[in-house]
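Reagents: none. Just compute today. Alanine racemase.
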Amino acid sequence: MSLLIKNIFPILGAQYVGNDPEAIIDTVSIDSRSLQNGAHTLFFALAGPNNDAHFFVKDLIANGVCNFVVSHIPEGCADQANFLVVEDTLHALQQFAAYYRSLFNFPVIGLTGSNGKTIVKEWLNFLLSPDFNVIRSPKSYNSQVGVPLSVIAINEKHNLGLFEAGISTIAEMEKLEKIIRPSIGILTNIGSSHDEGFVNLEEKIKEKLLLFKHTPVLIYQKNDLVDKYVAPGTKAFTWSFVDETVDVFVFKKEVANQGSKLYYKYKGNSQEFTIPFQDQASLENAISCLMAMLYFEYDTATIQSRMALLFPVEMRLKVKNGINNCTLIDDSYSSDFQSLKIALDFLESQKQYQKKTVILSDIFQSGLSNEELYSKVSKLIVSNNINRVIGIGKTISAFKEQFTNCITFEDTAQFISSFESLDFANETILIKGARSFQFEEIVYLLEEKTHETVLEINLNAISYNLNFFKSKLKPNVKLMVMVKAFGYGSGGLEIAKLLEHHKIDYLGVAFADEGISLKNGGIQLPIMVLNPENTSFSAIIQHQLEPEIYSLKGLHAFLKIAKQKNLKHFPIHIKLDTGMHRLGFEENVIDELIAALKGEEAVEVRSILSHMATSDDLKHYDFAVSQIELFDKVSSKIMKELAITPIRHILNTSGISNFPDFQFDMVRLGIGLYGVSNDAAEQKYLENVGTLKSVISQIRTVPVGQSVGYGRRFVAQRPTTVATIPIGYADGVSRAWGNGVGFVTIKDKKASILGSICMDMMMVDVTEIDCTEGDAVVVFGESPTVSEIAHKLHTIPYEILTSISQRVKRVFYR
Ligand SMILES: *Cc1c(COP(=O)(O)O)cnc(C)c1O
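Predicted 3D structure written out:
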């Protein structure tokens, strides 16, 4: 892309305020954290309900970004950059993308549907890319923001586009239609009427088909409802398992070794092909791909040979623990320029070490000449401050000179034989390669070897839950997030990093050592320590942590050290006991507290807080209100007598939900972030964050009368198929969950726990489940949920979450 600012503002109908209308734009960004932002970036300051990028404009200018699309010019920024002022920056981004799309005129396949669109897109990319320079949406970038960004990545060399569109409510598709303008449409599986935000199936189909309003050809599985809403100017190209009148009639499917064989009739001829999958969804997705290949007039032999090589699509970037304290970002299934950019941004957001390494294969289908491509890749690597590049493949080896501190290998096998000499340690490593390079072998080598039980943490779900609670806050109310107990068992540092990116105001931990490890991990947010022991005060000061002070004894001890160290205005937090009777100053010592703080320069009361005993249970509503009233009264008195205006806060997660009028200046979010609500109605709006997973180690059949496990507490009443899972009470699964009380989920089915849970293992009943050794087992997550387990075990979700042992590896993904 190369556009002049002066040519862009008429397109957006923007008011131009700036001094360099001749500025050249070569990329577009919405991510203020991306290291790829530069002088030729056009930054669209999007404003959501919770995050407003206008807030970052000043920092971006300081980092050399000169061109912005904004809805208002942030304070202190006028005259410092080019501003295109519009009413709605998201709308402007969409307009810009639609304009940019109109500059190109090659076939574009638009995909929508309820299921399968990302898979069909990735498969089509694989099937068609030997013959086309394909530009496609990266991962599942299919939203109101993702689609424009995908389209803006088109360049002059591309000659086929694959873009997916996802919508959740009505009126969204029309906007995406203008941006994608498909010349060929594919409607994938449409799902049931219950999912997504539509009243019924008909409305959903009608809305989805708006993507194809001006599309000459539409591929879909024959269906009367779809027929009814296909635009009059669109030619249907249909397939079916049952209706012989369609263009492609799939008349037989049979199980072939490790896969399926499909027989179809097209233009009077019967043909067949095989795919390495057996499930119904994969069959339908493969047929969608077949239709596109037939439309492009591929011959049967090519279809057969390529279809046989279809692969499972990995849709997310995974963060894993590596050997020697490394952190791995596993993106070992694709290599194209666009997804490299995304992976590098992700690397930056996840890096735990200053040192960053990228292991990169040859890049395919860029549409550019190799010279141009690798010079662009090199620029990208430089702008992301990558310390070393390990290139694998003949082409990247030939362009080794483009990179500094680069070592290359002809192929993966050569890399593996030199592995020991590469000394991977204390660094974050992005592993990014095309499928054919089999980088999964590299990931395997670099991955820390532990047993197969992991707690998977969905970082997107955390962001989602955070935004859910943020949206409940009144303007200017600050947010503290509690990451005590290792982030409620989910992983402290990783979650703190994510929260820092989301610009929350404070972190809260229980003990000083938790805060110290966050600070050592590079966290810069202020951190309040709830339970500072007097012995830790020195360490607290040294690491710039902020103690909660809850007694006169503690205050005097802290003041003593603060004075020894000549501190001035060191931030402290005053905790009031208003009825919880755990920690805090009671009302009767407040005068003494005030006296001790009056005129004291060594410390500064940054906040005053209290904690509620019953915010989750409206049965105690009156008591809760009495706590809040006492808090207001006592804190007001302190503020008045000391003439200070600290941050006041009392609400935890349930408080945010149940006492919205008492947010004061800040709230303290805890369990809600991790996807658990104490309120069943609210639970529906939260996303599950943690999934405790394991695998089946062994399967056997136990005859009638035989027993399973210690103490023979389960005796088979029927021949029982028993699977052994390598997770036990030492991993944090309560023994009370055994003996038929609890269950795990295997292949979406419940398998009840047989007999007693052992220290490192448990046995479950899989008699009714078609499974094999090595299959995945969910111990908690979507089902059973943590709340469900807590309820049956007469405890609370907090205890279930925080009981998971540290020996269980945490794996983060988004
Ligand atoms: C743990 C804790 C919170 C958060 O509580 P949730 O119920 O998890 O939201 C808030 N404040 C204090 C003082 C806490 O100890």
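The two ends are 29 Å apart (CA to CA).
Action item: order primers for follow-up constructs.
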